[in-house]
Amino acid sequence: MDVEIVGGGFAGLACARTCAVRGLETVVWERKRDPGDAVHTTGILVQEVADGEDLPRDAVRRIAGVRVYGPSLRSLDLERPGYAFLATDTAAVLRWYADRAVEAGADLRTGQPYRGARSGRILVGADGPRSRVAAAHGLGRNRAFLAGVEAEFVGEVPIDERLHMFLDSELAPGYLGWVVPGVGITQVGVAARRHRPDLDAFIDHIRPVVDLRTAVLAARRGGPIPVGGRVRPFATDDVILYAGLSRIEGPALVSAACARRSTTACPPIFRTDRAISPTRRSRNSRPPTKSVSSRRR
């Protein structure tokens, strides 16, 4: 076995497909029986990621801008011509990623949590913010977290197709609240740095601009959101934490590690002319931060 991946979320499945396509024998350990079960993420994709994937059209929704609200609910629209986010049916997209990884040749073992025994030359930790792989191999751990909670509503909610972001130091100290017109649902959430936020109070506060009283609550979830950037160290000679790496760095590091640990040649597409340092940040990993146009409301 060349590559053993722990975690069948977005990062783990994308890594598995990339490795399998390039001829590396790859296995994924995923504790859930269905990768789309018990989703704990809003599932918004930036355009740089979405452009590289042929995602199923019925599982995505294009959102071409951001509306930022202050505590008074006055707002400012931010947009860049030609740029958009994608809201997703996250469960459907995860299942799509799983199917693509299996089609590429990866061995996806669902309902089987990682128990610590090694079978691959390279071990990839894609198992979330409290990574067991990181703990077992002395790699960096997430130490700072936001507390987040989100609800999904079905039914008509009269809002513009934008990513709605709410700044309020009382309801969301240290972060923000959000409303996403998603795929068949409306996602409403809030996160805070110091304590678990009150989602019901947030929903009451935003009612003048987002009225959810006619919608039906379909699901509710919460959990920690890691902050603070990439953990360090995030790699050894044969163990790599995949989350946080760019689409260029991740495959290059995995394949370079395979080449170092193998007596056979690495697949040519994985070869690099120079090593990528685990402490160097790729310029390609930064999303755009400037908006070229705005409109006050």
Summarize, please.
With 297 residues, this protein is α/β, with parallel strands linked by helices.
How would you describe what is shown here?
- This protein is of the alpha/beta class and 297 residues long.
- It folds into two domains: 3-42 and 88-142 and 229-278, FAD/NAD(P)-binding domain, CATH 3.50.50; 145-226, D-Amino Acid Oxidase, Chain A, domain 2.
- The protein is 19% helix and 26% strand.
- It is built from six helices and 15 strands.
- The protein has helices at residues 10-21, 47-50, 90-104, 132-136, 199-205, 249-261, and strands spanning 3-6, 26-30, 60-63, 66-69, 75-79, 85-88, 107-110, 122-125, 145-154, 163-166, 177-181, 186-192, 216-226, 239-241, 293-296.
- The strands form three sheets. The chain has an eight-stranded mixed beta sheet with strand order 13-9-12-11-10-4-5-15, covered by helices on one side. A five-stranded parallel beta sheet has the order 7-2-1-8-14. The chain has a two-stranded antiparallel sheet with strand order 3-6.
- Strand 4 and strand 5 form a beta hairpin.
- Helix 1 runs parallel beside helix 3.
- The chain is globular, with a radius of gyration of 20 Å.
- It starts with a strand and ends with a strand.
What percent strand? 25-35%
Strand order of the largest sheet: 13-9-12-11-10-4-5-15
How do the SSEs run, as a string of H and E? Answer: EHEHEEEEHEEHEEEEHEEHE
| Mean of all residue-level pLDDT scores | 84
User: How many helices?
Assistant: 6
| Poorly predicted ranges | 245-249, 263-295
Which structural class fits the helix and strand makeup?
Answer: alpha/beta
The CATH topology of the largest domain turns out to be: FAD/NAD(P)-binding domain
Rg, alpha carbons: 20 Å
End-to-end separation? 57 Å
Number of strands: 15
Within CATH, the superfamily of the largest domain carries the name FAD/NAD(P)-binding domain
